[in-house]
């Protein structure tokens, strides 16, 4: 259920009062956007990946397999984290973090209005008009056999 106009007005007044009373605390509440946080994590993962490469090469050159294996594990973990963070950012556009459709920004704070975001789940019937995967494969197989004269 979305907030009423009166509730939104009261919330905005409380936010303004908080900013006037304690600007440092208000800026702490604002925090960083998801994009900035993800960028920071991706850069850190890249630096750790390079460190893993250095460990791997050091282990190979010094003929110490344990160091090389640890370097490879560090590379693997950092690459996984970095790619996960970057994949999560594909849907984010502009300089702001992704927001639900019904949200608005007021004075640096995000107000999320209730209700559905307008996205609806895909109906099963619409995907069934082409049949299941196995049905399509069987139909292709049947057509090939008929075309080849079997």
TrEMBL record:
<feature type="compositionally biased region" description="Basic and acidic residues">
    <location>
        <begin position="132"/>
        <end position="150"/>
    </location>
</feature>
<feature type="region of interest" description="Disordered">
    <location>
        <begin position="93"/>
        <end position="150"/>
    </location>
</feature>
<feature type="transmembrane region" description="Helical">
    <location>
        <begin position="67"/>
        <end position="86"/>
    </location>
</feature>
<protein>
    <submittedName>
        <fullName>DUF3040 domain-containing protein</fullName>
    </submittedName>
</protein>
<keyword id="KW-0472">Membrane</keyword>
<keyword id="KW-1133">Transmembrane helix</keyword>
<dbReference type="Pfam" id="PF11239">
    <property type="entry name" value="DUF3040"/>
</dbReference>
<feature type="transmembrane region" description="Helical">
    <location>
        <begin position="42"/>
        <end position="61"/>
    </location>
</feature>
<dbReference type="InterPro" id="IPR021401">
    <property type="entry name" value="DUF3040"/>
</dbReference>
<keyword id="KW-0812">Transmembrane</keyword>
